[in-house]
């Protein structure tokens, strides 16, 4: 089978996803276009050679609707002949885009393809696409008569099932902020972030160079003072034994951002004189209990390792999306991974989680970590609404 390789990857800084956030004045098409344009400029490729742009976005409504990937590709200056498509596997949308892109290369359908993602949560708020409507239907409701729950309650159920304490959740969150702040201080994000200028309070555009949600002063003592984010009488009645440990501080914030990855056939890269940074080794996607919803990273990791013929100890760096710190700690407790190898430069708790962009962002960071540490194999995995998860293994070249 033909090898698919990653030529390069880039991301925007990540802004706070609220009015007044650093990137809130940037239309999501323009934000996405910046990542695409930066990728093309860094690699020096002829954009007419791109066979497809496959992009992830979760809030496919309003300014992110109508196949937003197509408009971002045109905004980035790609030729009209280059097609584009937007996919939705919830938080794993751009990781799934990466899988589709690589699988297309492996099959011979593509020679050169971009996988990317975008989410402007300040301009397209989370949940906009459902707007309070029933998106499950009667038969799903019949299959789960006790009812499903929001992700925050799933995070609480995970903490309860794996007997995680509030102190553990907060300590991991504080460590994520410290790692991210340290990585910025030491210049470890310099090679992956494409700064941009964004409007500020209706005035002239100002440079945005760093991730806005990182708080270097975060401590466990500060986090311990935060109230549970999802506790209310309705859920207390249904789950009277929950410890109510999940807070805004040990969860990912809402964010704006974009990321893009250039994938090629190994033969195409060689023919075009492009240096490959990594080989896309193995893919997996799986489903899990939609009540717990966020635990799919456990079977997805096992499935990917099994397909790759690798053991957990063979993996040199992990990127596990920190939608909630309970997810990463449950994953670690179940699999026994060394947390020193997990989210080395900080995770979504600190850096942020712009939903549709996060899969491509994690891959961008994973490549940096492998190169910075000299590691060979990296694995990234992403929990997704509905009890889904993707896992991807790459081999640094």
Salient structural properties:
12 strands; single chain; 10-stranded mixed beta sheet; two-stranded antiparallel sheet; 13 helices; 397 residues; alpha+beta
Description:
With 397 residues, the chain is of the alpha+beta class. Helices cover 35% and strands 19% of the residues. It is built from 13 helices and 12 strands. Strands 1, 2, 3, 4, 5, 8, 9, 10, 11 and 12 form a 10-stranded mixed sheet that branches. It is globular. The mean pLDDT is 97.
Give a brief outline of the structure:
Helix content is 35%, strand content 19%. The chain is built from 13 helices and twelve strands.
The best one-word shape is globular
Number of strands: 12
SS summary, helix count: 13
Protein structure class:
alpha+beta
N-to-C SSE series? EEHEHEHEHHHEEHHEHEHEHHHEE
Q: Summarize the amount of helix as a percent range.
A: 25-40%
Write the layout of secondary structure elements.
Blueprint: E1 4-11, E2 15-16, H1 28-43, E3 52-56, H2 68-75, E4 84-87, H3 93-107, E5 112-120, H4 137-143, H5 151-161, H6 166-185, E6 196-198, E7 206-208, H7 220-224, H8 233-238, E8 255-265, H9 266-272, E9 278-287, H10 297-308, E10 317-320, H11 325-335, H12 348-351, H13 358-373, E11 377-384, E12 388-396
Parallel strand pairs: 3-4, 3-5, 10-11
Antiparallel strand pairs: 1-8, 1-9, 2-8, 5-8, 6-7, 9-12, 11-12
Helix pairs in contact: 1-2, 3-13, 5-11
């Amino acid at each position: 089978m033909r090898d698919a390789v990653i030529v390069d990857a880039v991301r925007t800084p990540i802004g706070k996803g609220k009015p007044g956030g650093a990137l809130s004045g940037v239309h999501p098409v323009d934000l996405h276009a910046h990542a695409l344009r930066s990728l093309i400029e860094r690699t020096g490729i002829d954009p007419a050679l791109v066979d497809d742009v496959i992009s992830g976005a979760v809030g496919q409504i309003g300014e992110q609707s109508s196949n937003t990937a197509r408009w971002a590709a045109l905004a980035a200056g790609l030729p009209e002949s280059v097609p584009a498509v937007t996919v939705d596997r919830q938080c794993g949308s751009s990781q799934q885009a990466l899988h589709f892109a690589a699988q297309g290369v492996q099959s011979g359908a593509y020679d050169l393809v971009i996988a990317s993602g975008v989410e402007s949560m300040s301009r397209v708020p989370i949940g906009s696409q459902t707007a309070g409507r029933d998106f499950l239907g009667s038969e799903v409701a019949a299959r789960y008569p006790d009812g499903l729950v929001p992700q925050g309650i799933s995070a609480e159920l995970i903490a309860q099932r794996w007997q995680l304490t509030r102190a553990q959740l907060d300590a991991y969150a504080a460590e994520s902020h410290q790692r991210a702040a340290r990585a910025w201080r030491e210049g470890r994000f310099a090679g992956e972030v494409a700064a941009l200028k964004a409007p500020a309070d209706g005035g002239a555009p100002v440079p945005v160079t760093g991730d806005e949600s990182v708080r270097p002063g975060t401590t466990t003592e500060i986090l311990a003072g935060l109230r549970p984010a999802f506790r209310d009488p309705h859920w207390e009645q249904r789950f009277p034994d929950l410890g109510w440990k999940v807070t805004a501080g040990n969860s990912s914030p809402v964010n704006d951002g974009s990321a893009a990855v250039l994938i090629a056939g190994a033969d195409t890269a060689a023919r075009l004189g492009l240096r490959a940074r990594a080989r896309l080794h193995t893919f997996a996607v799986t489903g899990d209990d939609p009540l717990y919803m966020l635990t799919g990273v456990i079977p997805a990791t096992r499935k990917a390792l099994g397909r790759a013929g690798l053991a957990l100890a063979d993996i040199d760096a992990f990127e596990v999306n920190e939608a909630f710190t309970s997810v990463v700690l449950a994953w670690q407790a179940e699999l026994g991974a060394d947390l020193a190898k997990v989210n080395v430069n900080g995770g979504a708790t600190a850096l942020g989680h712009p939903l549709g962009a996060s899969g491509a962002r994690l891959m961008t960071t994973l490549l940096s970590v492998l190169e910075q540490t000299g590691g060979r194999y990296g694995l990234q995995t992403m929990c997704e609404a509905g009890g889904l998860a993707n896992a991807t293994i790459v081999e640094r070249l």
